[in-house]
Amino acid sequence: MLYLIAEQLGFPGILNLIRYLSFRAGAASATALVIGLLLGPWFIGWLRAKQGKGQPIRTDGPQSHLAKRGTPTMGGLLILIAVISSVLLWMNLSNIYVWACLLVTAGFGVIGWLDDYDKVRKAHHAGLSGKMRLALEFLIAGVATWLIVRTGGTGLHLPFVKETVVDLGWFYILFGAFVIVAFGNAVNLTDGLDGLATMPVIIASIAFLLITYLVGNARFANYLGIPHVPGAGDLTVLCLAIVGAGLAFLWFNAPPAAVFMGDTGSLALGGALGAIAVATHHEFVLAIVGGLFVVEALSVVIQVAVYKRTGKRVFLMAPIHHHFEHLGWSEPTVVIRFWIISFVLALAGLATLKLR
After folding, report:
1. Do the Cβ atoms of 154 and 279 come closer than 8 Å?
2. Least confident of 108-122, 136-150, 340-354
3. Three-state DSSP class for 10?
4. Which residue intervals of the chain are DSSP H helices?
5. How far apart are alpha carbons 58 and 41 in whole angstroms?
6. What does the pLDDT look like over 48-104, one tens digit per residue?
């Protein structure tokens, strides 16, 4: 909004700073951080008063989690308010990529909120039906991908390869929607311990902050041999807004958590990262940068598939972070070690930008 106002005024005086993407991205991050920190205490108190018993805790999980009863959920709403407000304030309102990613962020957030609300209302960890959730997610992701491919192309790119591997045409919409839905649910599955999903999301957002900037700059994109997507650079505003909002939420979500992110936040943030990856044609790099989320999701898929076939479990409990808890690792140990893994994977993903 401020960009549009400054543009209409001709960027006079100090408003000329708004012309620069780096300034707007940094301002969006600071805005999201301040909104989250200032609104957090009141918002958490409001959630606690409205929810009473808070998020239902699974009785078949680690016994240490039973102490978390009464902790309010839907804290992801705080993240969404901070992210969407700051992005709308500092984005270029004519940029279709940012609107497409915001559609996924807000749409997945609504789906997650409905799921969280159902859990709190029923006082049970089961929320919306899986089929309904997936149908709604694919609808939103499909529309967002359609908006992206109208101007961003339909070429499939792989790490370590400079040229376009294949042009998927309109099948790219199905591919993009799958990436967005899959990553949204992968982050959702990871969100099971205090701070476990938040920091890896921040790390992945920082990695894609660099990727979006490079992809949106023709000179850097041509030098690195990565796809150039004009206008994708504005997604740095969204990436840094997620970082600012994520840091603010982590202030309250650090062990012992005063609030849980819930599906409201995890589904929305995962979907946002998936949409950013689709817009920049770095879907496979996302699988590396967000490898922690991929492993968490695969652990659930493997556990369910093997158990249905043989009646035996591969892991003591899935997702895999619970497996390590059952092995005797304390919750902070699991969280911090998974953060380290996430950081290393982000560096590995960024290395693919040059190794082509």
Report:
1. no
2. 108-122
3. coil
4. 2-8, 21-51, 76-90, 96-122, 130-152, 171-190, 198-216, 218-224, 235-253, 262-279, 283-289, 291-310, 320-326, 331-351
5. 26
6. 888 766 555 555 555 555 556 668 888 999 999 999 999 999 999 899 999 999 999
Distance between CA 111 and CA 280 in Å, rounded? 25
**In one letter, which amino acid is 292?**
L
List of residues 6+ apart from 67 with CB closer than 8 A: none
Q: What does 310-333 look like in DSSP terms, one character per residue? A: HS--SSSSSSHHHHHHHTT--HHH
Whether the model pTM is above 0.85? yes
Identify whether the C-beta of residue 146 lies closer than 8 Å to the C-beta of residue 279: no
Residue 63 has a CB neighbour count (10 Å cut-off) of 8
**For tokens 């969006």, what's the residue?**
28
Q: For 184-239, how does the pLDDT look when each residue is reduced to its tens digit (9 = 90+)? A: 999 999 998 888 999 999 999 999 999 999 999 999 999 999 999 999 999 999 99
Look at residues 242, 165, 150, 252 and name the one whose alpha carbon lies nearest to residue 203.
Answer: 242
Residues with Cβ < 8 Å from 352, sequence gap 6 or more?
159, 160, 285, 288
Cis peptide preceding 56, ω within 30 of 0: no
The DSSP line for 28-84 is HHHHHHHHHHHHHHHHHHHHHHHHTT-S---TTS-GGGGGGTT----THHHHHHHHH
Tokens of 174: 């199905």
What's the CA gap between 218 and 210, in Å, rounded? 14
Query: How many whole angstroms separate alpha carbon 209 and alpha carbon 271?
Result: 16
Task: Determine phi and psi for 166, rounding to 5 degrees.
Answer: -160, 145
Residues belonging to the chain: 356
